[in-house]
Design brief:
By secondary structure, the chain is α/β, with parallel strands linked by helices. Helices cover 47% and strands 12% of the residues. It is built from 37 helices and 23 strands. A seven-stranded parallel β-sheet has the order 8-9-7-10-15-6-16, sandwiched between helices. Strands 19-20-18-21-22-17-23 form a seven-stranded parallel β-sheet, sandwiched between helices. A four-stranded antiparallel β-sheet has the order 11-14-13-12, with helices on both faces. Strand 1 and strand 2 form a beta hairpin. Helix 18 crosses helix 19. It starts with a strand and ends with a helix. Bound molecules: iron/sulfur cluster (SF4). Residues 296-298, 357, 362-364, 367, 369-370, 373, 375-376 line the site of iron/sulfur cluster.
Length: 920
């Protein structure tokens, strides 16, 4: 067997080919590696990064072998994670891990050999052979295990072997039978099983949730239930019970929406209780994401073709693994589905990005893989599923567009993580006139202009629908001509050129109006920066739009005219395409009809909606200015995104002052019933009624005709017994003091610590200072923005490695579920106040009812409650919560659950008590 290598920070364990185990400092390990054959490792990028080998080195990565042998199987990317996935005894130390890696390799190869006759492995040898020629070091061992050398390219042509989906007629509308509370309880009891722990709160919660499924009594007036379920209530099964019953009884679909893809995965995992049989589950439950998340077989064919024709076979190794995965995947989801999160870390984001339909270039019925397309299949399955698990961004876009890939608009929703509705609506209903968006639209319309990209433009995509139809050709040509007003290739490099395109050139018709506008907007941002200091190399620079600089005001009308020259032919094209559907109804085959439908949807949403919003924003510049203090419907501002000291993009942004109004009107009012739920819907202030009203305002319930039904179920946990909470009062807010504080607390807990930060720079600085000491104490430290792993992978690793610690930002604070000892300490660097930007300033003025400081407090308290909620996930968990911000106002401490006594103590005392409490 080859040598094996496992790295900590600044040290490594190597098992040589002769079986000698070496524990070496990083420098000596680097020198030893030069003498050794390529070693077996787990997660090569993070292994070599820890060793200080930034450029990497040749290696046999066990994750690649795992992905080849057991495609689409989940595994945490550590020696322990792989050992657990293979039912092997996990290693306890770095040395044990190095010794175990050859055994893991052998186990995987044995499994492959045992399964060589399975259909999954019919073409495996051929795929491995090609990967071997492209430099895959596992190829000889894999071929030996398969007992054949293998040749031919058939293995890569997975698009020929996938099953075809069947078209079904659109389902009739759902009926409206109610779900009685007793029925919801009975379904819940069935889901939990006879021996489940009794949680009376969970049954009460299921009762309340059932109310959202009552028949609607008046148009525009849905049943809205706001249900707060304290951590540990078991709210997911609590709402799945009435939702699944309603779907079955009424032959309808309930859309369950949550905030992130990671949380979609968690909900999907819970649905195993409802449908333990995977075949039935696949039929009745569908996880739905945006198209850009799925494998596009046409892109795969293009990429495989390029890789096979290239001399070096670049990318053949990841493509070979993708082909293996495509045979085994449940739904072709590249992002957070059953393709492991670490895949992109191993091979780079660009590999998976090139395989997805990220730019809306799908050619639908004209695609040779249409009948096998993962996306099309998922869309169809979702139409007839009982439950669709989606995310807030997707369902809001779906409602705003009156359907995504078809005309489906749900009538019943569950919004889990309901405390994020405000942010999700803010993002979904805002508009941005930016260089990036403009350039993306140009590319969508005109395709790649020079360069190496093969992006197809609109003409190539809809050619067959248009050619020979003069009525369609003319507006298409006019649109493509007008699209040249969008930022041209190289716009970003020209953006920071102070002598860039000016108004004179614009009036002479010699400048791109979009670029002139961006240039003037950037000048306004720089002119209005506060102070004389240069902004940091990485910054988001903002200024208000009003009053606009004269150059911005002068550039706006020309850009507005350019957009109007685009809008007109789009409308004509849309109208004539729809006419064709009507006039040629007798002769059009269904594939062509669906292509025309898809082309109209894309033109409307990708192009017309965007151009219309941009025109409205530019028109606002010429409208009467808002008076100081006046409550605006929208907030307008300019933003520049600065990276490495250069402004890469400039955006003119429009946000709703209260985005929940758009949410309520677009999504909630047309629905029949909604359950909005979370562990932290309400603030824990002194006035319960005010807390409910604030919760209603944050989800838009206040904009509906009937009041929302309120329900609250307390947490079953005994927080006073299970937790301790401290505010440390002798640590200053600088990294020099924060780093030792984190180190002392993580050591006191013996690992299992989650460190939360409000700034990435401080997270990185603290990580650099404490990682070696923790490592020396046997506590691996992982970190978002430091380790070459995405958030999902980091959480999987943190959950698997019980003694490890993890540093992260917002995404780690909300909704992450790590039960048991793996998470026993949460340390917050400072109070999570809202970011003091223009949007927040306006909202705290106009949405706070005059209590601006109370508005800020409420947001900070809800964030603290979310963070505290990570700590205790089961009745047997114990945990410590620490705030390192000595300026923490006492009024925020009501965020902690009832019974938790927050002590203000010095760091040494906090560490002592943490150690003692967790050792009890
Ligand atoms: S139908 Fe569209 S998304 Fe599907 S494989 Fe073809 S081009 Fe890709």
């Amino acid at each position: 067997m080859p040598p094996s290598l496992v790295c900590g920070y600044n040290r490594a364990a190597i098992l040589t080919e002769d079986g000698e185990l070496l524990a070496l400092p990083a420098e000596e390990a680097r020198a030893a590696l030069r003498r050794l054959k390529p070693p077996i490792v787990v997660h090569a990028p993070s292994t070599f990064r820890r060793l200080g080998l930034r450029g990497g080195a040749p290696a046999l990565d066990l994750l690649e072998l795992f992905a080849f042998v057991l495609p689409a199987r989940p595994v945490a990317p550590t020696p322990r994670g792989i050992a657990l996935a293979l039912d092997m005894t996990p290693p306890a130390t770095l040395d044990d891990a190095a010794a175990l890696l050859p055994d893991i390799a052998e186990t995987l190869l044995n499994r492959l050999a045992a399964g060589r006759t399975l259909p999954l492995n019919a073409h495996a040898a051929g795929v491995a052979a090609r990967m071997g020629r492209a430099g895959w070091l596992w190829a000889p061992a894999v071929q030996e295990a398969l007992g054949t050398i293998g040749e031919g390219l058939d293995g890569f042509r997975i698009w020929r072997r996938l099953p075809e989906w069947e078209e079904h007629p659109p389902p009739p509308p759902a009926s409206s039978h109610a779900i009685a509370p007793s029925e919801a309880r009975a379904r819940l009891a069935g889901l939990l099983g006879a021996f489940a722990e009794q949680r009376p709160g969970q049954a009460d919660y299921a009762d309340a949730a059932a109310t959202a499924f009552a028949p609607r009594e008046a148009r525009g007036d849905p049943h809205v239930v706001l249900a707060e379920a304290g951590t540990g209530t078991g709210k997911t099964l609590g709402y799945i019970a009435p939702a699944s019953l309603w779907a079955e009884r009424n032959h309808g679909t309930v859309w369950i929406s949550t905030y992130t893809k990671l949380l979609q995965r968690q909900i999907d995992a819970e649905l195993v209780r409802l449908h333990p049989n995977p075949v039935e589950r696949r039929q009745r439950v569908v996880v739905r994401k945006g198209r850009e998340n799925y494998l596009c077989l046409l892109n795969l064919e293009d990429n495989v073709g390029m890789a096979l024709s290239g001399a070096t076979g670049a990318n053949l190794v990841p493509l070979g693994l993708i082909v293996r995965w495509a045979q085994a995947t449940n739904d072709g989801d590249l992002q957070g589905g059953d393709l492991p999160g670490w895949f992109a870390e191993l091979f780079g984001q660009s590999v998976t990005a090139a395989l997805a339909d990220r730019r809306g270039e799908c050619i639908h019925g004209a695609c040779t893989h249409y009948k096998r397309c993962f996306i099309e299949h998922t869309v169809r399955r979702a139409r007839t599923a009982d439950l669709v698990v989606a995310n807030h961004a997707l369902v809001m876009t779906q409602a705003a567009w009156q359907g995504l890939d078809d005309d489906t608009v749900p009538t019943r929703y569950v919004f889990d993580e309901g405390h994020h509705v405000f942010e999700a609506a803010d993002s979904a209903f805002s508009a941005e006139l930016s260089g990036v968006e403009g350039a993306e639209l140009r590319r969508w319309l005109l395709g790649a202009e020079g360069g190496r990209s093969r992006a197809r433009g609109l003409k190539r995509r809809i050619d067959e629908l248009v050619v020979g139809h003069a009525k369609l050709e003319a507006p298409l040509e006019a649109l493509l001509h007008a699209a040249r007003a969008l930022p041209a290739p190289g716009w970003s490099a020209r953006l920071s050129d102070d002598a860039g395109p000016g108004l004179e050139a614009l009036s002479a018709g010699q400048a791109n109006p979009f670029e002139v506008f961006l240039h003037a907007a950037r000048a306004q941002i720089l002119a209005r920066l506060p102070g004389d200091d240069q902004p940091g190399a990485y910054a988001s620079l903002e200024c208000e739009m009003f009053p606009p600089n004269p150059d911005v005001e002068a550039a706006a009308p020309a850009l507005e005219r350019a957009f109007s020259r685009m809008a007109e032919p789009i409308r004509t094209l849309l109208a004539r395409l729809e006419e064709r559907l009507d006039e040629d109804a007798d002769t059009l085959d269904s594939a062509t009809r669906s292509r025309i439908d898809a082309a109209c949807r894309a033109l409307r949403h990708r192009c017309l909606d965007r151009v219309t919003a941009w025109r409205a924003m530019l028109s606002a510049l010429c409208s009467p200015r808002p008076e100081p203090g006046e409550r605006p419907a929208h907030i307008y501002f300019l933003r520049a995104d600065r990276r490495e000291g250069i402004d890469r993009d400039v955006a003119f942004c429009r946000h709703h002052l209260d985005p929940t109004q758009a949410f309520a009107m677009t999504l909630v009012a047309p629905a029949h019933g909604l359950l909005i739920t979370s562990a932290t819907l309400r603030d824990a202030g002194e006035d319960a009624e005010a807390d409910w009203e604030a919760a209603e305002a944050r989800v838009g319930a206040a904009h509906l005709p009937s009041p929302a039904i309120r329900a609250a179920v307390g947490s079953p946990f005994d927080y006073a017994r299970q937790t301790r909470a401290f505010v440390v009062n002798d640590v200053a807010a600088d990294v020099a003091q924060l780093a030792p504080a984190y180190r002392a607390l993580f050591l006191a807990a013996g690992g299992g610590g989650l460190g939360l930060f409000t700034a990435i720079s401080r997270l990185r600085a603290v990580h650099a200072r404490i990682a070696p000491d923790l490592e020396a104490a046997g506590i691996p430290l992982f970190a978002q923005h430091v380790d070459a792993m995405d958030n999902t992978t980091l959480i999987d690793v943190f959950r698997t490695e019980e003694e490890s610690c993890l540093l992260g930002t917002d995404a780690m604070r909300d909704g992450v579920d790590v039960p048991g000892r793996a998470l026993r300490l949460v340390v917050f660097e400072r109070v999570p106040w809202p970011r003091p930007d223009i949007l927040h300033r306006e909202r705290r003025i106009h949405l706070s009812g005059g209590d601006v400081s109370g508005y800020d407090d409420r947001i900070a308290r809800l964030r603290l409650r979310q963070a505290f909620g990570r700590l205790i996930r089961t009745a047997t968990d114990r945990g410590v919560f620490v705030l390192l911000d000595r300026r923490t106002p006492t009024r925020l401490l009501s965020a902690m659950p009832a019974g938790v006594d927050v002590q203000r103590v010095g760091l040494a005392e906090a560490a002592r008590q943490t150690r003692a409490f967790l050792a009890e």
